[in-house]
Amino acid sequence: MRSPADCGRLAGMSTADVSSTTQQDATAPGTGSSAATQPGGRQDAAQFGRETASDGAFVRQPNRFTDRVTRDSRSAPGEGPDEHGHWPVEAGRYRLVVSLACPWAHRSIIDRELLGLQEAISLAVVDPIRDEKGWRFTLDEGGKDPVLGIGFLSEAYLATDPGFAGRVTVPALVDTITGRVVSNDYPQLSLDLSTEWVDHHGPGAPDLYPEALRAELDPLMAEIFTDLNNGVYKAGFATGQAAYEAAYDALFARLDVLEERLADRRYLMGDRLTEADVRLFTTLVRFDAVYHNHFKCNRQKLTEFINLWAYARDLYQTHGFGDTVDFDHIKRHYYLTHPKINPTGVVPKGPDPLRWLTPHARG
Ligand SMILES: N[C@@H](CCC(=O)N[C@@H](CS)C(=O)NCC(=O)O)C(=O)O
């Protein structure tokens, strides 16, 4: 077993993580004053200065905690990670900390529902509005998570790595025995729910990451990550015109390709749901409510794509998808926590969520 000090490994990318490998898909960010002197991007306008390159492009920070819960962990129940950073699978031990606003967290919430893991992995929901200390458990009695006993997610991050100075992010899988963060590596985390927690899946749980399809699924999910899931952020957080337009063009080019792909198939991989659908849905469901105007992704609304809109409604009306969407949390989070982008803090009233329940005529 590794010592606790080993657990806080260098920020990095997990090997099996198709999404994280594409995280570094723009010029490395500049820092502070040197970036401010470069043409192209306005550092003073950046929502996240440390993650903004000299040309104004948004470059997401790497995931800090990349341990995993795996079936092959050599640690016994109750122990910490083995020498590979693998913690033992144990029902009731880990707590998934999420914001209902966050698309990266939303993946794991949907997977947990679809796979029937609600009893095995408990859920902690943070307030959609962060204060200067970050994500808070103010929705819980006394302002503390009842299981972890903390008021801020940052407490778990700092308990795991006292020197952590990046953004404290959700989702985070936290060990309830030690209070340490096991992972904030959202792509690996959601894949592991499918592949490592099989012994705890509910009856009839779908295989969202079938081995036979991975050769096609992995590149598809990488494209969805680069151009859509992270693409909306690259458009929204850009502080340079060219960086914004590059993200915008790639985003709508990818939506056009997927619109075509969904013309003759119910789901991205045909007639079966996969992790790719989960990942696409979390961006689509936020598109008209947030990304279209807040992030300036306004060539088209989702509702103006025939196939994508019907596909998104089909998923929304499937258990695990629409019942995990909270438009109130989504809108208040984005419009109230990005003061550089929405300085008035006014939250838009629309669009009407009831249109998600209209017939989709698919499947
Ligand atoms: N873990 C990833 C992505 C997860 C992520 O960005 N989550 C957002 C919410 S959607 C978050 O927690 N943000 C906290 C912040 O910006 O301070 C990262 O480090 O970039």
From TrEMBL:
<feature type="region of interest" description="Disordered">
    <location>
        <begin position="1"/>
        <end position="87"/>
    </location>
</feature>
<dbReference type="InterPro" id="IPR040079">
    <property type="entry name" value="Glutathione_S-Trfase"/>
</dbReference>
<dbReference type="InterPro" id="IPR036249">
    <property type="entry name" value="Thioredoxin-like_sf"/>
</dbReference>
<feature type="site" description="Lowers pKa of active site Cys">
    <location>
        <position position="291"/>
    </location>
</feature>
<dbReference type="InterPro" id="IPR036282">
    <property type="entry name" value="Glutathione-S-Trfase_C_sf"/>
</dbReference>
<feature type="compositionally biased region" description="Low complexity">
    <location>
        <begin position="26"/>
        <end position="37"/>
    </location>
</feature>
<protein>
    <submittedName>
        <fullName>Glutathione-dependent reductase</fullName>
    </submittedName>
</protein>
<dbReference type="GO" id="GO:0005737">
    <property type="term" value="C:cytoplasm"/>
</dbReference>
<feature type="binding site">
    <location>
        <begin position="167"/>
        <end position="170"/>
    </location>
    <ligand>
        <name>glutathione</name>
    </ligand>
</feature>
<dbReference type="GO" id="GO:0004364">
    <property type="term" value="F:glutathione transferase activity"/>
</dbReference>
<feature type="binding site">
    <location>
        <position position="135"/>
    </location>
    <ligand>
        <name>glutathione</name>
    </ligand>
</feature>
<feature type="active site" description="Proton donor/acceptor">
    <location>
        <position position="233"/>
    </location>
</feature>
<dbReference type="InterPro" id="IPR047047">
    <property type="entry name" value="GST_Omega-like_C"/>
</dbReference>
<feature type="compositionally biased region" description="Basic and acidic residues">
    <location>
        <begin position="65"/>
        <end position="74"/>
    </location>
</feature>
<feature type="compositionally biased region" description="Polar residues">
    <location>
        <begin position="16"/>
        <end position="25"/>
    </location>
</feature>
<feature type="site" description="Lowers pKa of active site Cys">
    <location>
        <position position="334"/>
    </location>
</feature>
<dbReference type="InterPro" id="IPR016639">
    <property type="entry name" value="GST_Omega/GSH"/>
</dbReference>
<feature type="domain" description="GST C-terminal">
    <location>
        <begin position="210"/>
        <end position="334"/>
    </location>
</feature>
<feature type="active site" description="Nucleophile">
    <location>
        <position position="102"/>
    </location>
</feature>
<dbReference type="InterPro" id="IPR010987">
    <property type="entry name" value="Glutathione-S-Trfase_C-like"/>
</dbReference>
<dbReference type="Pfam" id="PF13410">
    <property type="entry name" value="GST_C_2"/>
</dbReference>
